[in-house]
Amino acid sequence: MAAIVRSCGGGGHLIFRNLGRQVSQRGYVAVHHSMGPGHIKSAPRITHFTDVTWSWLRRNNMGVLGVVGIRYNSTDVERTQPSMQAADTSLSPPDAVAPNITSEVPPAMSTDAPLTEVTPVRFEAPTTHDIMQAAAETGVDPSLAELGLGGWTPIGLLQSTIDMCHSTLHLPWWASIVCCTLLARSLMFPLIVKGQKNAINLNNVMPQIQKMNEKINEARTMGNKWEVAHLTAELQAFMKKHGVNPLKNFMVPLAQMPVFISFFIGLRRMATLPIMSMMTGGVFWFTDLTAADPYFILPIMTSLTMLTIIELGSELGVENPQMKTMKNVMRVVALMILPLTASFPTAIFTYWMTSNTFTIAQISLLKVPAVRQWLKMPNKIQHDPSSLKKNEGFMKGMKSGWKNASLASEVENRQRRAALRWKEAGTGPVPQTFTYDPTKQTPAGAHGIKTKGTVRKK
């Protein structure tokens, strides 16, 4: 490692290359590249080369004159070969100095080129295709995280649970899906029981609730707000006393909806990638859980089980006129989904069939008197049809509700206009109710009586 000086005429031009922190030689002269021979004696002398010296030289465009060889002080071992050849330090007489001094820098000793060059290497994350290709070659499934599955979302937690059943319990994929489905439906069983209790209690007091609702509608139609508020408070107190709430009937479907969506999306993503072992993780005729059923047996069985659930009754265990209308709608839906779901992966139908079978068994179980008594479910009262309000049907109910709402709005607008007129009467000018101005009328007893153009004084 050295600094080399090339002498050209009377000037000196220095080439720096990897100076050390301190050199063993002393007494070097720092000169500017543009200096002539006459300025060399007045140039500052440098006794040690340090990082500061190196920076100062470069900042001031200075060189070092008279350097033959430089090595690090820390190099104790003798070198068998010189670090570099000695520089030619001979100087030409002043009169032989050319006006334009140029020095050629060997390419190998260029100051711009580093001592060693490091070529950067880019490391790119493997794609899903690369991971799946490696899994196909090794026969080992990658983790869900490597495939972009799993996580802490409801869908990710469900995927992790299914994968745990497959990897930890060493169950095939179809059995893992069945186990997770049964686990999810079993956890929702207490909610189903609570929903049935609320539906039965609501059915038992339905005649009283309908009568109170009729009174509220009449008061609303007449525009009697005080009566509406009073009857509404009575209805709320009555339902609280019997522990019923019509909104609780929506508790069961609202709780089941996110579970169904999580299973559907989670299994569809696992089958779409696909996870390689799921291609052989089925059973019977559907060994490939990532493909559709080639014989359409699973879609047909799913539609049939849905129709069975509709005919057996809802999970609430209570039927009313509104539910009869919903039955007809659900029958149509059960038939329409057959062509729409025929292309779904069999992994989804494995969940769907298991869930429908569990629902059928649950409805049948909750109809057993001993089970109902053990669960402390109330007895359902069969009301006389004449005591219940006749169902008007969907369209008639819509028309009746629209008519009642229109009447209530008209009454409210009428009351608003009356209140506005009353306010204007108290703050506005006095309306004229006489054909003459009563404030300008002269009393007859004080100034006389005007008769036929004459005034008679007393």
TrEMBL record:
Q: Where is the composition biased (Basic residues)?
A: 449-458
Any stretches that span the bilayer, and where are they? Answer: 171-193, 291-312, 332-353
Composition-biased stretches (Polar residues): 430-442
Q: Recorded GO terms, molecular function?
A: membrane insertase activity
One GO BP annotation of this record: protein insertion into mitochondrial inner membrane from matrix
Q: What subcellular locations does the record give?
A: Membrane; Mitochondrion inner membrane
Q: Which family does it belong to?
A: Belongs to the OXA1/ALB3/YidC family.
Location of the region described as Disordered in the Swiss-Prot/TrEMBL record: 421-458
Membrane topology designation: Multi-pass membrane protein
Protein name stated in the entry: OXA1L protein
Task: Cite the entry's keywords alphabetically.
Answer: Membrane, Mitochondrion, Mitochondrion inner membrane, Transit peptide, Transmembrane, Transmembrane helix
Q: Which residues form the Membrane insertase YidC/Oxa/ALB C-terminal domain?
A: 173-364
Which CDD domains does this entry report, sorted A to Z?
5TM_Oxa1-like
Domain of life of the organism encoding this protein: Eukaryota
Q: Does the keyword Transcription apply?
A: no
Q: What is the first-listed, main subcellular location in coarse terms?
A: membrane
Gene Ontology, cellular component aspect: mitochondrial inner membrane
